[in-house]
Amino acid sequence: MTTSEAPPSGAVLMHNTMKITEGHLEGFREAIRRAVAFVEEHGPQLMVRVFVEESEMRAHSFQLYGDSEAIRTHWKLSDPYIAGVMEHCSVERLDLYGDPDEDVRAALAPGAAGPFPVSITPLFTGFLRLTGTGTAGGRGPDAAGEASTHGGTDTGTDGAAHTGTR
Fold first, then answer.
1. Strand-by-strand arrangement of the 47-53 sheet
2. SS3 for 65?
3. CA 92 → CA 31, 56, 60, 88, 118, distances in Å?
4. Is the confidence at residue 34, as pLDDT, over 60?
5. Are strands 118-121 and 47-53 parallel, antiparallel or unpaired?
6. b/e string for 99-136 if b means 16 or more Cβ within 10 A?
């Protein structure tokens, strides 16, 4: 790598917190099922997990992307499915963990992403192991007996200063 080349942005974990509209729980669940089925078949995500707190009418979607290009690809491919989900909820906040590139950061800057808080927390250290996690149809690891074909590691930090919140 030459000094003019930027290092790759690496894996990014996205956590989307949504407030489900009163009376829309079943519609939300169905729209989420369709969206997740679509990205499982066509999307670039390495992992998608959606959790629903029925008593609070709140949902949490966690999506793991290999890099910023995968995030952009997801946004382009999934717009109709995202619109279908948004008929039943509103985004409360969006939290990213990792080091997305400047284009993704700009798309999530205040006012650009929407009327909700967005935070970006840079990676400090850790690893990523996905082999054997299964899809489980939303009911826990390996319940469906399927294994992921994705694997690898993502460790360390470049030591550069990063903005923690955008």
1. 47-53, 58-65, 12-20, 89-98, 118-121
2. strand
3. 18, 13, 10, 13, 9
4. yes
5. unpaired
6. bbbeebbeebeeeeeeeeebebebbeeeebeeeebebe
Tokens of 146: 């399927």
Structure pTM?
0.74
What the block records as the tokens of 59 is: 């949902």
Residue range 25-49: average pLDDT?
A: 96
Q: Dihedral of the CA atoms 99, 104, 110, 112 (nearest 10)?
A: -170
| Pairwise CA distance, residues 34 & 39, whole Å | 9
The structure tokens 């995968």 sit at 70
| pLDDT of 75 above 70 | yes
Tokens of 96: 């990213």
- In the numeric block, which tokens belong to residue 91? 């985004």
Average pLDDT over residues 74-82: 90
Give whole-number Cα distances, 34 to 72, 85, 110, in Å: 20, 9, 29
The 10s digit of each residue's pLDDT in 108-154 is 987 777 789 999 999 999 887 777 655 544 444 333 333 333 333 33
71 phi and psi angles, rounded to 5 deg: -65, -45
Long-range (24+ apart) CB contacts under 8 A made by 24-27 are 24/87, 24/88, 24/89, 25/52, 25/54, 25/57, 27/87, 27/88
